[in-house]
Specification:
With 235 residues, the chain is mainly alpha-helical. It folds into 2 domains: 155 residues, Ribonuclease iii, N-terminal Endonuclease Domain, Chain A (Orthogonal Bundle); 71 residues, Double Stranded RNA Binding Domain, CATH 3.30.160.20. It contains 12 helices and 3 strands, in the order H-H-H-H-H-H-H-H-H-H-H-E-E-E-H. Strands 1-2-3 form a 3-stranded antiparallel β-sheet. The radius of gyration is 20 Å and the shape is globular. It starts with a helix and ends with a helix.
Length: 235
């Protein structure tokens, strides 16, 4: 295949050209694409994602340890906020590799922002893994500094590092004198790929809803959405 667009992306957005551009192609290849092209010898990005996840966690942990004299629990929460799907998915959108991500036709046509955010997050980790192999730790670290760690001040200031469910409960108790409740709205899909939608209610009124592959994930996403609504109230 023609790797020119991938090399142009790497040079323009990452600041280098891959010695082995096939690594970048693999990093941006989703499992669904491989399943759709079974006759071709194609690798998907999950192994590179596994490696990139470890590099990402090490770089973020090292940065927090060296720059903040905080207890382990707080630094763990900050790290979780920096490397959660939404954060690294947003970094992927900022890099703009969307047109290069190889998806099945069905996956591409879903048009599901949540699903695509997860795919973009996985691809970001895979790109970090590919960069680590091809260029080494320092280059991978630079990319993480530029696209993930540059968000640390914002995360600390707006409180998004805190556990969303606990944080929202504090907000509702302070503002409404109420404790939020969660209700399962829908449960879809086979056992190995469940999809849950949960509603968050305060004093019987639905405030937000969230989706996820587990009830806990859906509740967390509902709380995160509700926090934004309550912040607007306070403003």
């Amino acid at each position: 295949m023609d790797v020119t667009p991938y090399q142009e992306f790497a040079k323009d957005k990452l600041g280098f050209e891959f010695k082995n551009p096939e690594l970048l192609v693999e990093a941006l290849t989703h499992r669904s694409y491989v399943n759709e092209h079974k006759k071709q010898q194609i690798s998907h990005n999950e192994r590179l994602e596994f490696l990139g996840d470890a590099v990402l966690e090490l770089v973020v942990s090292d940065f927090l340890y060296r720059n903040y004299d905080k207890p382990e629990g707080i630094m763990t929460a900050w790290r979780a906020a920096l490397v959660r799907t939404e954060s690294i998915g947003a970094a992927g959108f900022e890099l703009g590799y969307g047109p290069l991500v190889r998806l099945s036709k069905g996956e591409r046509n879903k048009g599901n922002d949540r699903s695509h955010a997860s795919i973009f997050a996985d691809c970001f980790e895979a790109v970090i893994g590919a960069t680590y192999i091809d260029q080494g730790y320092e280059t991978a670290k630079r990319i993480i500094n530029e696209h993930i760690l540059n968000k640390i001040d914002e995360i600390i200031e707006d409180g998004t590092w805190r556990d969303p469910k606990s944080y929202f409960q504090e907000l509702t108790q302070r503002i409404d004198g109420q404790i939020p409740t969660y209700k399962l709205l829908t449960e879809e899909g086979p056992d190995h790929d469940k999809h849950f939608t949960v509603g968050l209610f305060v004093a019987g009124k639905k405030i937000s809803q969230g989706e996820g592959h587990s009830k806990q994930e859906a509740q967390t996403n509902a709380a995160r959405a509700a926090i934004e609504i309550y912040k607007q109230k306070e403003d």
